[in-house]
């Protein structure tokens, strides 16, 4: 077999600004994902640690350190990560970043949700087990982006099932977590956040494609009135929405009583 990368990359040119990914079948009979780079490619496993290794006989370094932290906790000891530990965990996190970015292009959304959740778990673990604020921030600064990708994956899973309402809830949940991050760190960057801007635009596109109920129209009009400081109109809409909600609750209760009596 030729060891020349040009033979492997023939017909698969690199294009700046584009993420080019493909799945191949490995010689071990398992699927792999390949990410094209300007000077070659990265090949990753579809599950487990992307490079296919098992550091310390564990699925990943994160799993290894989590096990040690649990053992220390049972002994009422405080488990601390060294700077070198954190550096190795950061490099491992980059492997998962490359994979979930690649898998998103392949629309493998469940795997993207898995890997982004894993990296968010990594950030939380480092935060808990080091006192170095600079090290914590080296991880936490990526929370808005990883949370956004996690949200995109989870919402895309629901859209594949044509559950637009649930997808919208996932988007709202994700954006709320990103806003909470900025508030926690007392940063004014939330308004400039590319991640929030993307989720807001996507949410608005999905809403525009949905049939809008009378109640939803009124809620949106009330939000608009509040933003425009038209408080009298907002109060009027609020009262009308409460009245409609009360009628709907009464109908639901009445329907439930009829079903019980029929039983």
Describe this structure in words.
The mean pLDDT is 90. Helix 3 runs antiparallel to helix 4 (109-129), helix 4 runs antiparallel to helix 6 and helix 6 (143-160) packs antiparallel against helix 7. Strand 1 (21-25) and strand 2 (31-37) form a beta hairpin. The protein starts with a helix and ends with a helix. A three-stranded antiparallel beta sheet has the order 1-2-3. With 263 residues, it is mainly alpha-helical. It has helices at 5-9, 61-74, 83-105, 109-129, 133-140, 143-160, 164-184, 194-209, 214-227, 231-262, and strands at residues 21-25, 31-37, 40-45. 65% of the residues lie in helices and 7% in strands. The protein has ten helices and three strands, in the order H-E-E-E-H-H-H-H-H-H-H-H-H. It is globular, with a radius of gyration of 24 Å. The protein has a domain at 217-263.
Instruction: Work out the strand percent.
Output: 5-15%
User: Strand order, biggest sheet?
Assistant: 1-2-3
The beta-strand count equals 3
Which structural class is indicated by helix and strand composition?
mainly alpha
Largest sheet: 3 strands, antiparallel
Principal-axes geometry comes out as globular
Portion of residues within helices: 55-70%
Mean pLDDT: 90
Radius of gyration: 24 Å
Q: Please report the distance between the alpha carbons of the first and last residues.
A: 73 Å
